[in-house]
């Protein structure tokens, strides 16, 4: 891996917290992701199952973690299975985890080769009454592909039909949404890499540059700072492209007088950052562009103040909509009649700001978190208001990642990344 080793204390703590919420005499199993084929002998780059990584730190395919805190055999209360390595594999694929390295990474003391999985599971299952199976129940999930985890769950429940079944996901939704200080440090590192990329392009952008050239500059800066690259598919949207919320073609030339909306960020050690900025191609905002820009920035600042313990996500968005409505009235984009006659299911402000303001972020860009439960300290949210005006040929979105604090305003992990219009103009015209 490109990233520096992570302190195994994080994964030891995560497992302890998970096991504390398991039912008596229960066993939980977590599988690595598949390496997905493209065609012929080509595959997609491997991405680890986030739950397995969260509980073990193992970033390798064909790995399985089993947790059984009540197991009578104390050596089988935490068991990690990894692919057996040898000299041939080392030559053709590179170094894989040895048993000793797996223990050092995860803190799990009992490590077997994967070929022993069924035999060890048979012994463990004879002590267990309940299996915790892992499923993806994120509110945005729409998965058609059968995963390695799915296949294992089918096999396990068919092999041992007399066991009760419970779900790991509700436990993980709560645990993963509240970050440990080690996680916050990793996310801060991802944000710092993102900052380097953004500052790099402020000196690179000029009329005539192509969106994909900017993408290349960002990727260069991210990878040279130990990131795998983009945390998600990058959006580099100049001119009216910014009014397509998920514009990812990045194949147009940037023109004098246009704005470029960026939704780009780096990952680090599988932890994500998520940044949006909007800059003028020629280094100067027009008066109208700056007026709208400052309105978006104002909404972002006010929305950030609302991310405090006890608030509910849905109610938070209602409050943000009031702030945005006020700004759109000032900009002349809507009027009082629009607001008075609005459809409650699609309020007037939605014409120019049609997406949500915040989501959890962590190991996933849209991370786990139960939205109906109150916000807690050490949850990390994005704040990303936008105003999109196709008739004027531009859209503006601004986004930072912030940590909810026990008291006071959230801590901005992206506080060092330029955002004020005058600062951006100054840096682009140095």
Description:
There is one protein chain. This protein is α+β, with helices and mostly antiparallel strands and 430 residues long. It has helices at residues 9-19, 50-56, 87-92, 99-106, 117-127, 148-159, 169-177, 181-202, 211-223, 287-305, 313-331, 336-340, 421-428, and strands spanning 26-31, 37-39, 42-43, 64-67, 78-82, 110-113, 130-133, 164-167, 235-238, 259-264, 267-268, 271-272, 275-280, 380-383, 386-389, 394-397, 400-403, 411-412. A six-stranded mixed sheet has the order 6-5-4-1-7-8, with helices on both faces. Strands 9-10-13 form a three-stranded antiparallel sheet. Helix 1 (9-19) crosses helix 2, helix 8 (181-202) packs across helix 9 and helix 10 (287-305) packs antiparallel against helix 11. The chain is globular, with a radius of gyration of 24 Å. The two termini are 37 Å apart.
List keywords for this structure.
430 residues; six-stranded mixed sheet; alpha+beta; three-stranded antiparallel sheet; 13 helices
Characterize the main sheet. Answer: 6 strands, mixed
Shape: globular
Strand content: 15-25%
What structural class do you assign from the helix and strand content? Answer: alpha+beta
Radius of gyration: 24 Å
Poorly predicted runs of 5 or more residues: none
Arrangement of strands in the largest sheet: 6-5-4-1-7-8
Q: How many helix segments?
A: 13
What is the β-strand count?
Answer: 18
N-to-C CA distance: 37 Å
Mean pLDDT equals: 96
Helix % is 25-40%
């Amino acid at each position: 891996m490109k990233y520096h080793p992570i302190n195994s204390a994080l994964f030891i703590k995560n497992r302890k917290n998970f096991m504390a919420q398991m039912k008596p005499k229960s066993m939980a199993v977590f599988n690595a992701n598949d390496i997905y084929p493209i065609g012929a002998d080509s595959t997609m780059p491997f991405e680890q199952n986030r739950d397995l990584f969260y509980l073990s730190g193992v970033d390798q395919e064909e790995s399985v973690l089993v947790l059984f805190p009540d197991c009578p055999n104390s050596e089988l209360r935490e068991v990690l299975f990894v692919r057996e390595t040898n000299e041939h594999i080392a030559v053709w694929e590179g170094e894989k985890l040895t048993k000793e390295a797996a223990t050092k990474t995860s803190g799990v003391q009992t490590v077997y080769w994967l070929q022993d999985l069924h035999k060890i599971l048979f012994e463990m299952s004879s002590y267990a009454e309940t299996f915790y199976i892992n499923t993806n129940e994120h509110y945005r999930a729409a998965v058609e592909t059968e995963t390695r985890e799915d296949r294992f769950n089918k096999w396990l429940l068919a092999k041992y039909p007399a066991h009760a079944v419970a779900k790991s996901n509700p436990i993980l939704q709560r645990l993963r949404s509240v970050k440990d200080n080690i996680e916050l440090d990793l996310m801060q590192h991802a944000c710092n890499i993102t900052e380097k990329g953004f500052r790099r392009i402020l000196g690179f952008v000029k009329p005539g540059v192509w969106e994909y050239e900017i993408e290349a500059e960002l990727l260069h800066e991210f990878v040279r700072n130990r990131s795998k690259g983009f945390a998600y598919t990058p959006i580099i949207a100049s001119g009216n492209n910014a009014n397509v919320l998920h514009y990812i073609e990045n194949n147009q030339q940037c023109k004098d007088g246009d704005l470029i909306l960026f939704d780009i960020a780096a990952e680090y050690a599988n932890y994500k950052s998520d940044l949006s900025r909007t800059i003028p191609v020629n280094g100067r905002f027009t008066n109208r562009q700056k007026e709208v820009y400052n309105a978006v920035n104002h909404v972002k600042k006010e929305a950030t103040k609302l991310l405090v313990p006890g608030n509910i996500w849905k109610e938070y968005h209602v409050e943000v909509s009031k702030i945005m409505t006020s700004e759109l009235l000032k900009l002349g984009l809507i009027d009082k009649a629009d607001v008075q006659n609005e459809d409650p299911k699609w309020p007037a402000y939605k014409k120019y700001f049609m997406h949500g303001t915040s989501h959890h972020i962590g190991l996933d860009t849209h991370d786990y978190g139960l939205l109906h439960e109150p916000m807690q300290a050490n949850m990390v949210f994005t704040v990303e208001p936008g105003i999109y005006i196709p008739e004027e040929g531009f859209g503006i979105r601004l986004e930072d990642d912030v940590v909810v604090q026990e008291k006071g305003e959230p801590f901005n992990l992206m506080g060092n990344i330029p955002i004020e219009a005058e600062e951006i103009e100054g840096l682009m015209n140095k």
